[in-house]
Design goal:
alpha+beta, five-stranded mixed β-sheet, 13 helices
Length: about 600
């Protein structure tokens, strides 16, 4: 569940990155086809890049392993029965992960149903119609008052509503949509809106894709039409049609003002192509910050050296699981006898209805006559454990039973095994022994704080766009509209650079803070891995020196618990910092939406 949420957050962030790059850098350029592939590449990258993870190995110095020898005196047996306590009933808590998944599922299902309804509506329009095949296009002339649209190689229109020249402009426009397979872009953007329906950026992203497709069709159609001004009047006439079919390319899709401006705009200079690659450094930063997994690993040479300096030889580990069979247990006793001259007897074997071990008793008789008995009893299936054979520098061998997470550094758990031999126990008052020193937990970094600069433009004082005359034949009104539009464009040209610079400033500030914080967090996580490793060694050293029941061991455990609580607090602070960061970004998005709203009004 957590992995799914992380994937959604990363994908949403990448979608936002490509959208803002398009909005601030590419939206006003006339490289429409390049912008089309840029926007599609953004969608593909948003789902592929979060799945690519690079593993980084951090080499650390190993710690020599020391395992104490636990035995009993001859003919003296000590058995500790292990009975797990019944867990207390947990208080009712809301599973927010499940709640979030349910909400997402409801939204996903609703938009999928809407998607299916749109396909059904489209099929209703095309079903039973007379189709006229011309070259690669299928023309469908309908009687309904709907806006002309294309769907793959289908071009649907109502010829009775337009003059011959107007119909020519419309068909040339729709042929571009059909010939360049723009329906694929529409469907892909719609699918992403279903998958990320909760993300407002994806809806703006879809709008940008559809709008750019209209720019492409307008640009290509205008090259084939002699009267460019008549084509623009046709655009205005189509605005009176309110009925549109979803998941298709409409002749009237984006704002008419923007399409007319783009038709009359000069071609962008080729050196502006650099803007398409401006997103690459941010993608590289994303990979370095979120897609590199750090793993701590001991250096091989130093690990071998540590093994040579250890008093005891490396222990031999033989794993026993809850599903180990009786025959495998017999093979284990034969192996210990053959390889180590250890007489091991296994008895009191009990299993549940699933044939899983619930009880086992191990009796070891060594060549020196000493006896060791290990017994575990439970009402449930036993956890995975291992028989560990330790050989000290004198050749004396001992057997211990450890849990699965202790196999890397085997220790003997006192509640499960025989008591320690007094001849081998450490002297707690031995002044020559060096007392273990507890490691200090590292402190978590804080997210860089700072104020967000205010917007340089008061959105309430934005210039208002003039309204086009309803009568397209009123030349005087159109002349006044064109003058007002020129004045409006002049005012917008003064304001837009300020907003663009402000957006770039906010992105740069937040990117710098994120980079600093993630770098500090990466170092902190590595430091915590080393701290946990050192703390495990410290606990083993204290247990070996003082025993499980000593005050020093209890003190070390309390210190460890205290450090872990501090670590949890640090993680909560980390979540709080990230929420504040998300809040700042939402405010920034809100400002951008206000700007977009004003532009949409224009």
């Amino acid at each position: 569940m957590e992995a799914l949420f992380i994937f959604i957050v990363k994908s949403s962030s990448l979608i936002a990155l490509f959208y803002f790059a398009y909005f601030f850098l590419l939206r006003k350029e006339t490289f429409f086809n390049s912008s089309r592939w840029f926007l599609l590449a953004g969608l593909v990258t948003s789902v592929v890049l979060p799945l690519v993870v690079y593993t980084k190995v951090v080499w650390i110095d190993p710690v020599p392993v020391s395992v104490s020898s636990y035995t009993t005196a001859a003919n003296f047996q000590y058995v500790s029965n292990f009975h797990p306590q019944t867990a207390e009933k947990e208080s009712f808590e809301i599973n927010w992960n499940l709640v979030s998944l349910v909400i997402y599922g409801i939204g996903f299902a609703a938009f999928m149903i809407k998607f299916g309804i749109d396909f059904y509506s489209l099929n209703s329009v095309l079903k039973g119609r007379k189709i006229e095949q011309q070259a690669d296009f299928k023309f469908v002339d309908v009687n309904e008052n709907i806006a002309p649209f294309s769907y793959f190689d289908y071009i649907v229109y109502n010829s009775s509503m337009y003059s011959e020249k107007e119909l020519e402009s419309i068909l040339e426009h729709e042929k571009v949509h059909s010939d360049q397979h723009h329906t694929v872009d529409v469907i892909i953007s719609r699918i992403f809106c279903i998958l990320f329906w909760f993300n407002p950026i994806i809806w703006l992203y879809k709008k940008a894709i559809l709008q750019n497709l209209e720019f492409i069709a307008d640009s290509e159609a205008a090259k084939k039409i002699s009267d460019k001004k008549a084509y623009q009047y046709t655009l205005l006439k189509i605005t009176t049609h309110e009925t549109c079919v979803a998941i298709t390319n409409h002749f009237y899709q984006s704002l008419i003002k923007k399409r007319i401006v783009m038709l009359n705009k000069n071609q962008s200079k080729k050196w502006n192509y650099w803007k398409y690659y401006a997103v690459l450094p941010v993608l590289a930063l994303f990979v370095l910050s979120f897609q590199i997994k750090t793993i701590a690993q001991e250096k091989k040479e130093l690990r071998e050296k540590a093994a040579l300096t250890s008093k005891n030889q490396d222990p031999e580990v033989i794993k026993i699981t809850k599903s180990t069979t009786d025959q495998e247990l017999k093979d284990l006793t034969a192996k210990l006898k053959t390889d180590h001259n250890i007489n091991l007897e296994i008895s009191n074997i009990k299993r549940n209805k699933n044939n899983e071990l619930t009880s086992i008793k191990i009796r070891v008789v060594k060549d020196n006559g000493k006896v060791q008995i290990i017994e575990m009893n439970s009402t449930e299936a036993l956890k995975d454990c291992s028989v560990v054979i330790n050989t000290d520098e004198n050749g004396s061998k001992s057997v211990s039973l450890v849990t699965a997470d202790q196999i890397e550094h085997p220790i003997v758990i006192k509640r499960d095994v025989a008591i320690r031999d007094t001849n081998d126990s450490a002297d707690e008052n031995d002044d020559d022994a060096i007392a273990p020193i507890a490691p200090i937990a590292p402190a978590a970094p804080a997210f860089p704080a700072g104020l967000i600069p205010p917007s340089p433009v008061d959105m309430s004082k934005m210039p208002k766009a003039p309204i086009a005359p309803k009568n397209i034949n009123d030349k005087a009104a159109w002349s006044k509209f064109e003058k007002d539009m020129a004045e409006f464009d002049k005012k917008m040209k003064v304001i837009e650079p300020q907003l663009t610079a402000y957006g770039d400033q906010i992105e740069a500030i937040m990117a710098e803070r994120e980079a600093i914080y993630e770098k500090q967090m990466a170092k902190y996580e590595v430091a915590m891995q080393k701290f946990n490793f050192d703390m495990e060694k410290y606990s083993r050293d204290v247990e070996i020196r003082y025993g499980l029941d000593s005050k020093d061991y209890e003190k070390s455990m309390k210190q460890y618990e205290k450090d872990m609580k501090q670590y949890e607090l640090d993680m909560k602070q980390h979540e709080k910092d990230m929420k504040q960061h998300a809040k700042d970004m939402k405010q920034h998005e809100k400002d951008m939406k206000e700007w977009e709203k004003e532009n949409r009004k224009s």
